[in-house]
Amino acid sequence: MDTVVILAYFNFSKSKSRYMALVKALAYLREEVDIILVCYGLDTDSILSSENLKIIKIPCASVLWQKERFYNVAFTL
Hints:
Radius of gyration: 12 Å
Strand content: 15-25%
Structural class: alpha/beta
Number of strands: 3
Shape: globular
């Protein structure tokens, strides 16, 4: 595929609605584009794998600037 979507996911509050929003987004995007999911604190076993989904887990020491850090990691691929 020609288009790549980078998703940054971190859910420090363990909100079920944020997780469900991620699952919906992945289901919708999975058939249209390649996806790079950069995440912290996500049980990746619950995410269905596919050829166009790459998951990058980031260890986290601080919540400050995490989204920008996630994007920087994804851009280096």
